[in-house]
Amino acid sequence: MLGNGAMAIGLLEAGCQIMTSYPGTPSSEILPEVVRFSKMGKLNTSIEWSINEKVAFDNAFAGAISGKRAACCMKMVGLNVAADSFMSAAYIGNIGGLVIISCDDPGPHSSQTEQDSRLMARLAKVPVLDPGSPEEAREMIKFAFELSEEFQVPVLVRPAIRVCHARQNIKYKTLKNNPTKADFKKEPTRWASTPKFRFLQHKALNEKHVKISEKFNTLKAFNRHTLKKGKTYPFGVITGGVPSSVVKDLFEEYNRKDIPMLKLGAPYPFPEKLADAFLTACDKVLVIEETDTLIEYMLRDKYKTLGRFSGHVPMEGELVPEKIETVLNKALADCKQSPLSDFDGGREAFGLVGELGLPLRKPTLCPGCPHRASFYSIRKAMPKAVFPSDIGCYTLGSNLGVVDTVLDMGAGITMASGFYNAYIQDGVQKPIVATLGDSTFFHSGITGLINAVYNDSRFILVILDNGITAMTGMQPAITQGLRVDGRKGNSVSLEGVVQGCGVKYLKVVDPFDTKTMIKTIKKAADYVNDPEGGIAVIISRHPCVIGFKDAAIPEKISVRVSDECNDCGFCRDRFECPALCRNPETEKTEIDTVLCAECGVCLQVCPRKAIEEI
Amino acid sequence: MKTINYVLSGLGGQGILFMTKVFAATALEKGYNVLGAETHGMAQRGGSVVSHLRVGDARSSLVRAGAADFLISMDESEAYRYLPYLKKGGTLFANAPSKSFPDKRVAAYLKQNNIKAFSMEASKKAMDLGSPKSTNLAMVAFYSAFGVGPLNADDLRSTVEKMSPAKVRETNLKIFDACYDTGKKIASAS
After folding, report:
1. Residue A163's closest chain B neighbor by CA?
2. Is the Cβ pair A365, B45 closer than 8 Å?
């Protein structure tokens, strides 16, 4: 099963009763896996997709201070959204175990940053565990609940993408319900503490830290070294998380029992004594950790320590195995030790691949995706506009030239008002068309829209409503009223919320009808420019082609390209469907029938009408 | 057992994840431990997709460059892109026309590193047999015909049978058998 499944097992084995999350790669599969295993074990786990990570955190926190075991999971940038709650909860503490799983994405593969959640734990003064494999993640989650209850402090588990999306066989026992009942005991000085009490809580948290650090010194399950008693070494390695598994594999493969290793699976609060003992036994120590420098900072010895600050370990990017092998070879050679191998990082082979001029493959919207049709119409209607956009599949609208900015969740709207303000100060009313998806709108768009209405900003907002959270793996949308475990929820009307934000101009269109959509956008622009006007919102509604195949394309339309095609490239450039490809021999566009979803929208695109229905 | 490393590559939408699951499930059925690394999310939308699978007792999920025993690719360019992962003496299986494969510039590298390379027009075969989306299974079958590595053809075939949805099961097995035969001919000729 996936690492995310192994963690779901760990959560349920630990008796986690409340589980909340907002999807984000690489964390998205944890919650659905909790649903699956909870159903299999006939457990009564309370499980929800929350509207965003802060909401997820607060829900779990309330469960934990009611005495239940609770957890919330998210991707690492989601922890930024929940940071306010996270920092505060560390001071207040909990009763039932509270575990936060924040999944990191070194690379980055599917994220806007490479931030290291261990440093967020350091900032919040929350203990952190850093698994090296799915199996270890599962074990750590169980320990995290015990630790959280023993010290009444939230515990962060930080799996990186190679744990989340690793596939490993996992054996597990029968899962049982946790019988603990909710029992919130009022104590305003703790749960609603004023700054005076916050100072005392901070002091108590610092005292907990000393004790947890002591515990981590002897926590053999996760923090252990391979030193032999009384022996000293010219070179040693301190590592943790995913790189620790790679280092172990490498040492085993090259049979390097002469190099001692300290693995810190529980790196913070820092196990000072354990690290000191290792540092004392070695002349030089190389730190290999992902993605930033938690251990290296905590070692506080720049003379003995090699790592990112000495230039041995890259400051950015994922520490893939070949990189770690190269780093180890270089550090060993610099310390006058024999390297693992003469491996040069595969320079010749990678060089050859570079020379082949292989096609650059960038991610694209799927064939038949309604967002493509929306973006096509937006550019057609407002070619000169600024296009702030957002996080989701539609970030890929950049391929169609209709995404100028992507900052974070909800910034499509807030940056639109920011752009408006920056230009209107100079007396210029800049045309602006913002885009974001339905889930992102609910996650972080609403406050920005209210703010823009209140402050009289002017722009067009197109909400791309495909009825699903697609990019992260088809989680149900709030507008559909279905909950993660299949139970019915109350659907929330997008139109109602938009109008509730104070928006007076709202139209709903189907993007597959590009003519109407173009007309609607142009009319909306008139309203935005009218002194009596305001913000115009267009809901571009069509089901996701992956999530709702039949509803998205109820009638398949087969198309072909006729001899009228003069290779102008307009369709490939402006519509950018992967099924439209150029045949260099005929010098014409062709339809790749394997990729084509038969949506028929491209019939509306060709200026020469050379794309025709069969 | 020594860990056997597979790298599977292709394009988004070709069904790399399903292909990985077929290999992993077969290995588990045989009693091996498996560890693999997959591509999800943004990186999965179109573009170049790769999946790593380690059969044996490895701890880290990624195959190191220069350490893959087998590279199985559903696209010729994506086969070349992941060439650095193959170890000396490894084997490459690609979905490509046998006339022009491998590219001349690559051939010298393959020879020098003692890498064997075999190809079949898997997507064409899958399409001719009625399921263009089953290129992934065509490549599994093609690989299985060479009898290399810890997973054999019968076991892989029965996993495909088990994992295919009922309405495409028959077609998938037809494709599997046809592509196995093609592979067998090439294997015995080499």
Report:
1. B61
2. yes
Question: Do A370-547 and A559-613 fold alike per CATH?
Answer: no
Domain containing B78 equals 4-183
**Tokens 């142009």 — which residue?**
A522
Would you say residue A456 has pLDDT above 90?
A: yes
Name chain B contacts of A242, Cβ cutoff 8 Å: 60
Q: Do A110 and B41 touch (CB under 8 A)?
A: yes
The dihedrals phi and psi of A235, each to the nearest 5 degrees, come to -150, 135
Q: How far is B183 from chain A (nearest CA, A)?
A: 24
- CA closest to A364 among chain B residues: B46
Q: What is the CATH number of domain A559-613?
A: 3.30.70.20
Give the DSSP H/E element, type plus range, for residue A323: helix A321-334
CATH numeric code, A370-547: 3.40.50.970
Place B43 in a pLDDT band, splitting at 50, 70 and 90.
low
Q: A507 CA to chain B: closest CA distance, Å?
A: 30
Which residue, B53, B47, B44, B183, is CA-closest to B122? B183
Q: Which two tokens stand for residue A140?
A: 């750590």
Whether A441 shows a pLDDT value over 80: the answer reads yes
Angle of CA points A65, A67, A73, to nearest 5°:
65
Ordered by start, the domain boundaries in chain A are: 3-217, 223-345, 370-547, 559-613
Q: Which residues in chain B (72-91) have CB-CB distances under 8 A to chain A?
A: 77, 80-81, 83-84
Residues of B in contact with A327 (CB under 8 A): none
Q: In one letter, which amino acid is A386?
A: V
Assigned domain for B60 exists: yes
Instruction: Tell me if the domain spanning A223-345 has CATH number 3.30.70.980.
Output: no
- Quick check: A358 and B77 CB within 8 A? yes
Tokens of B92: 């490459």
**Is the overall model pTM greater than 0.90, yes or no?**
yes
Number of domains making up chain B: 1
